[in-house]
Amino acid sequence: MSETILQVEDLKAYYFTPNGVVKAVDGVSFSVERGRCLAIVGESGCGKSTLVSSILGLLTPPGRIVDGKIIFEGQDLLTKSQVEIRQIRGRKIGMVFQDPMTFLNPLMTSGFQVAETLIEHLNMPLAEAMGKSVGLLTDVQVPDPNRVSRSYPHELSGGMRQRVLIAISLSCNPTLLIADEPTSALDVTIQSQILDLITSFKEKYKMAIIFITHELAIVPRIADEVAVMYAGKIVETGPVAEVMQNPLHPYTQALKNSYARARKQILPSIKGSVPNLANPPPGCRFHPRCPYVFKPCTTLEPGPSTPHPDRTVYCHLYGSEDVKL
Amino acid sequence: MSQVGEKLLELIDVKKYYPVRGGFLLRTVGHVRAVDGVALQIRRGETLAIVGESGCGKSTLAQIIAGLIKPTSGKIIFNGVEIKDNMLHDISLRHKIQMVFQNPESSLNPRMTVRDVLAEAIKAKYGNTIDEDALNEKILNLVNSVGLTPQHLTRYPHQLSGGEKQRVSIARALATEPELIILDEPVSALDLSMRAQILNLLLELQQRHYLTYIYITHNLEQAWHLSDRVAVMYLGKIVELAPTETFFHKPLHPYSMVLLSSAPLLEASFEVQKIKPVGEPPSPLNPPKGCRFHPRCPFAFDRCRETEPRMLEVEEGHWVACYLAEESSKLHNVQPLVK
Amino acid sequence: MVHETKYAEAWLRFRSDLGAVAGLVILTALVVMSVLGPIIVPEDPVKTNLNRALEPPGISGLLGRDELGRDILSRIVHGAPVSLGIGIFSVMIGASVGVVLGLISGYFGDKTDTVIQRVADVLLSFPSILLALSLVAALGVGLVNVVIAVGVSTIPVYIKLVRGQVLAIKNEDFVKAARLLGLNSAQVMLKHIMPNVLPVIVVQSTYYIGFTILVASGLGFLGLGVQPPTPEWGAMLGGGRTYIFSAPHILIFPGIMIFVTILAFNMVGDGLRAALDPKAPIVVKSLRRKRHE
To answer: Which one, of A255, A252, A210, A169, lies nearest residue A70 by Cα?
Structure first.
């Protein structure tokens, strides 16, 4: 039984800077179901950080959400007040970010930081919260949870800090977990452990997960569905196995091609670089770099096409039902 | 495919220890054993990948080979000549070994244009009195060979993308016509679409100039893609050394198996025994007694906890420092050769 | 947007800071005053006229006369090059010694570093004016000695500042790359480290010129700096001390000059700091106008 936990509809978030309007997120739509993990894959400059900030209500001026809906458990977050959002964020929506060192308070012990969330959101008394905190640290497979609970962030390794961050994010049993590049700064063996940990929580608590990454290779290990983001727009979505096996959008194909198939292979590479979001190319934003570019690409933005059930791609190669101007 | 030739570089028991000072009088209380007895031979034209996670000493080793860090002990022999301390002042030797660094942001002097960077490198090789026309010609050649245009010459680093900055770093490394280039995670900081371009460039340049590469990385996909041989480092020591195909199909050291199990390889066509990594890497200040990997090794037995295994050649070109591998090779009647 | 040179970009950033521009205008006016003023101004600043002592502004001379009947306007104008000169030369002395020591200390580290840093620490433990005072006590009063004393008192800050920058820069990859090219220590320091330290030195020096003028004025006020009859704003303050209630104009005008001068240097320093930071955004004002259309 799949219940949609988060549905984002045509979200637009722009930055209004003195040098122009940066359309960081420009009409993004996707959904995540209970117990499923959606990976959002994109390189730097694609707008994924802005997307995360928008969903969490953390977007600050000059950034502003201009249009769209963020429907969480049936309610549009954009219609809620800051107070209401604060009650949801941290409690019903957990967050894990890339660099635990900047997100943990260096002056508080790890155990206390986990407990803090429980105290804030659930009004738990301190002693009980500290007890539960050690329990959570055990759940995230921290060795010697009591010692870690008493330790300060700088006394812990990168992998341990990330586990502490995950413990904090899970403390109030959220229905949605947003993980923004949580393993990018970690060694590959620790990364593997953390990915397994997140997957085990998905299965145990049936959480919905949004996993943001720039490393396409991780996606099959963690996600059920994948959405590929480029220059502020989603260009392709679908089940992971299918998209990895048979990528439809030329950009997804290019990402896949950046991994070598044979030793000493000269990789098929795409020319150019990510566009400036203050002045994106007209029509399809990928067209200056696309090997298959043809007439409509330079002037018309492609709308969604569904060449297979469950798969959506925004590309003129697949013809589109509604073409946006 | 580059032809692999004679021995270019040899490292014999290279060590680098950093003293740790503690206490009131700041006496030396211990040592961080960043590199703890590394032996390697690198042949001309080959690409050797050195893989390992953070803290294994690969970056320190890279800098020792480049001559940026003086080893605590051990020998480095380049082109048959032993590099002694005072020889690092021999500029022609310096020029033969160059390096490309990981972080494009700190690789270029923010106050120098691309042209300044390349001119400096060329003048370092050919002298300050080089003819202006000759200098310009060489600069243009370098720019072209790394896929940049003359328009890039007047730009400052902050006006270049990450990929462009790395291209400039590569051009600078090529300017002194080196024989060996050490690449320390050259594409880790770049986006996926940029990586392919730079990796292609590196392959091309190697062919064209018959370069020898030492490719340092924690990314096994890149090691597989680019290298002829793979050396795995753990806590300052090399634990396995093998030709690439052999390494990926038949890794012998448990740590190698752990690495391969953890690497999110896309075209996962390697039938590797999946080993779950246990615990965290220990600190290089206090490595465990015996085999350094034993606390995390699922196969550890008594001998592993007592003494450190030596590197043995269990089959041709395939070296491992592991008692388990030693035992299994005996079972297959292969005579290990001791180095 | 790709600008032609770093200097063009720096200027744009500087220009967008109104305070910095105002400061620059004031400093330009001061320089003009220093150069042209002594030629234009009618009276001899040194000539005393006891009959007309303490005359308030208006009656004769724009700014009145001091306790010895000298024309205050002339003294202010002639004092400008004195103060500016002290500021610039003392900073030059301090910077040339301090920067070199800071470079050596930071680059070579180890014992050299320890020795230089301890010396700097000892000097820093004195408040600047006290340090300058002790040097004046040793050297004697007068313009040249003031410049030396105040200059030396700025050395420790330069050492610390430059050393910090060098430490931050010397482990950057581009410095390693320079060493790989075979450049020796001196070449690396001059070609790679210095240019990146320079912005910090420029900004600090700008603030410091204002500061040294203040210290010199303080010495002048105490009678231990520039000696009369040479006009110096601080000395003018000192001389007029006892007339604070009866003839405040003697104090007000030199006081204002000191205040405005130092303020101007500080504002220009702030502007330079933002201008020389390549990461600071450039606000291009022309776009603002466009969006209102």
So the answer is: A210
